[in-house]
Amino acid sequence: MYKRKQDAKPQVISYERVKSYMLWMIERYGDYSAKIMLQKANLLFKDDKQFNEPALEYLIERDIINDLRYAKRLTASLSEKNIGANKIKEKLYSKGFSSQTIAECVGELETTDEEYFEKALILKIRKFGAEPIEDLKLKQKALRHLVAKGFAYNIANKAVSYSPEED
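^ thats the sequence. predicted structure below, dont judge the formating
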């Protein structure tokens, strides 16, 4: 009566099909790194993976997939949030980028220590209030919080002990 999905013939996996799937993913969802694209292709075409890498190489050769461009876009997006350079490096590393790519992307960030201090201060005020922290345990907790968000210890310490009357 009604055809079930199980009754349908599986489509033949070909180089063109894998390549068109990868192009569709890029058109639909935007940039991907080569590693992520290969993982998605291996997941969908797990029965026959022989065409996944050649299709990916085709896209890389034509600069459709570019890890450096994707990493720079991701770095720019992360730098707009209130997180430090160390956290940005950690997130890029977890995405599978090489240390050279990470160093290049983070090196291009045009932020000074003063801008990082302002971001750290915003986070400190949001979570612990505007007054400087005197209690040792609370101060350690605030320092841990800011360092976990990717700020250097000296910037985090400056933000925790900052008082508005100093200006």
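Residues 113-166 form a domain with the Arc Repressor Mutant, subunit A fold (CATH 1.10.10).
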